[in-house]
Each structure stands twice: as structure tokens, then as C-alpha cells.
Design goal:
Strand content: 15-25%
Number of strands: 4
Helix content: 10-25%
Number of domains: 1
Strand order of the largest sheet: 1-3
Bound molecules: zinc ion
Largest sheet: 2 strands, antiparallel
Number of helices: 1
Radius of gyration: 12 Å
């Protein structure tokens, strides 16, 4: 079972994003060096705050928030 390193959520209905050991299109280590796993809620919040770096700047959730 996955558990969010940020909020401790382990709801099986949520999607979980892992930064390690997989090579993913996103990287949050600069802002969250100790987080291995984000639930989709924390991931979305961090992403909306610009704290998740996308490889090649390909952010599938990109919003016109500027
Ligand atoms: Zn979370």
C-alpha cells in the first residue's frame, strides 16, 4: 500500500506519484528533498504552486494561472 510522505494519506482510491526509484517526467526534489511519494492531492497542490519541475517543461496540468 502506498502512503503519502507529505500528509500521510493512504487512501487506496487516490493516485500516488513516486519520485524514486522510477525515472519520471517530474522532479520535486528541489522543494521536497525528503518526499518519495505524493498522493494526488498533495501532488496537485505542489504542482499548482510551481514546486514540481517537469522534464522538458511538459506539464500536463499546466494552467493559465499567470
Ligand atoms: Zn498527501
Amino acid at each position: 500500500m502506498s502512503t503519502c510522505c507529505n500528509c500521510g494519506n493512504n487512501d487506496p482510491d487516490l493516485y500516488y506519484y513516486w519520485d524514486a526509484p522510477l525515472e519520471e517526467d517530474y522532479d520535486w526534489r528541489d522543494n521536497f528533498p525528503l518526499v518519495d511519494c505524493f498522493c494526488e492531492i498533495c501532488f496537485d497542490i505542489a504542482n499548482s504552486e510551481g514546486k514540481i519541475k517537469w522534464i522538458d517543461d511538459e506539464d500536463p496540468f499546466k494552467r493559465d494561472s499567470n
